[in-house]
Amino acid sequence: MSNLRTPEVENLLEVLSAMTDKDELYALFEDLFTIREIKETSQRLSVARLLDAGNPYTAIAEATGASATTIARVSKALNYGSGGYRHALDVLASHE
């Protein structure tokens, strides 16, 4: 994690945490990332939700189009990572 904590990443996190307007966030994401990167990142969050709900890999692959490798990577992060997916899923659950 220490390699991730750079001034540049801190600036990005500061901007993201301060922005509340979804249209502004869409604009920033469209400027920062390719459409493919945004969709792939969003897909990973969907995979995490389905894994957390107990769905099997085959059903997740069918529902999201994610590869087995992506599903396994998300599963590993969800179960043994630094807690980012768990917090994101908790945020989503609180908004449902």
Automatic annotation (TrEMBL):
<protein>
    <submittedName>
        <fullName>TrpR YerC/YecD</fullName>
    </submittedName>
</protein>
<dbReference type="GO" id="GO:0043565">
    <property type="term" value="F:sequence-specific DNA binding"/>
</dbReference>
<dbReference type="InterPro" id="IPR000831">
    <property type="entry name" value="Trp_repress"/>
</dbReference>
<dbReference type="InterPro" id="IPR013368">
    <property type="entry name" value="YecD_YerC"/>
</dbReference>
<dbReference type="InterPro" id="IPR010921">
    <property type="entry name" value="Trp_repressor/repl_initiator"/>
</dbReference>
<dbReference type="Pfam" id="PF01371">
    <property type="entry name" value="Trp_repressor"/>
</dbReference>
<dbReference type="InterPro" id="IPR038116">
    <property type="entry name" value="TrpR-like_sf"/>
</dbReference>
<dbReference type="GO" id="GO:0003700">
    <property type="term" value="F:DNA-binding transcription factor activity"/>
</dbReference>
